[in-house]
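<instruction>
Derive structure tokens from the sequence
<data>
Labelled lines for chain and fold:
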Amino acid sequence: MSGLALWSVINIVALIAGLAIYLYIVGNQLKKVAGNLEDSADLVWDIKDDAEKIEPGLTSINTTGRVVAGALPLLYGMGEGIVVGATFNREEHEHDGVNRPAMGVRRSRFMESVGVAIPEQ
């Protein structure tokens, strides 16, 4: 057997071995994906079963929601009527803008300590 034929055989064997390893790796990954899909399918069926149990109550919830939505304009009008009498009116509560203590203005003694006399008010 010549060197060229020997290298050709080695190349073909290496190619087949590489393809076998590649197919083995891809096969294992596909098995993992199939297992995950099976678990996902079980979860989807569980969700579907739970949704079928909830469905009859949804009609009751929707009916109640429609009643409340229909009553909102009336409730809003009644609330506005209540608030009108209790609204704060700023013009009625105007003051001179200066807050004064109830006991009067306090006199500081700091100026007296440095010799400045302030006349009494």
Notes: The helical segments are 3-86, 110-113. Residues 3-85 form one domain.
